[in-house]
Amino acid sequence: MGAMMFFQVGIMVPATAGAVSLWSEDSRNIFSDRRASQVGDIVTVVISETATMTSTKNSSNSKSGKQNLDAGLGIFDFLAAASASQNDNFTASGSATNSNTARGTITVTVTDVAPNGNLIIEGTQSIWNNKNEHKITLQGIIRPDDITYNNTIPSNKVAEATVKFDGKGPLNSKQRQGIITQIFNFLF
């Protein structure tokens, strides 16, 4: 009889493996839009503002009056006839022109998303140069549709915008009036 040989073929089945993504659930796809859209996102505001104000005021006032006094009668006959007149003229005019230009960029953070989808932004940028600080602060509301493909937005598209340029340091303090001058300006 022949010997029967039994061969056992072993197939190795690996343990069940779960699918693991290279991207976490909250990360964005590399093909997705990278414009700011949620709290914590950043967007760059290109500040290009020009404000010009011209004011002209004119004022004039004129007044005149005349008084006549007849000669006295009776015991007042020593009074002679008299007359008096007065004229008062006032004219004033003035004008003022004020022009301001601000240019720069500031990268701000989305601090809130309004129910209608608009983004509330806020940010501060400080630049120090020779112990002088130059600070730009910006707050406002933007529409996501106004953000460009490179995640920037022009400052004229920021609603309720507050742009503040400030500075401190030795140079800035020298450009302010002294305390005595400020007191005299206040009093007079």
TrEMBL record:
A molecular-function term among this protein's GO annotations: cytoskeletal motor activity
Any one GO CC term of the record: bacterial-type flagellum basal body, distal rod, L ring
Primary residence: membrane
Biological processes annotated in GO: bacterial-type flagellum-dependent cell motility
Pfam families given in the database record: FlgH (PF02107)
Keywords tagged on the record: Bacterial flagellum, Cell outer membrane, Cell projection, Cilium, Flagellum, Membrane, Signal
Function: Assembles around the rod to form the L-ring and probably protects the motor/basal body from shearing forces during rotation.
Quaternary structure and interacting proteins, as annotated: The basal body constitutes a major portion of the flagellar organelle and consists of four rings (L,P,S, and M) mounted on a central rod.
Assigned protein family: Belongs to the FlgH family.
The protein's name: Flagellar L-ring protein
Organism, as annotated: Anaerovibrio lipolyticus
Gene: flgH
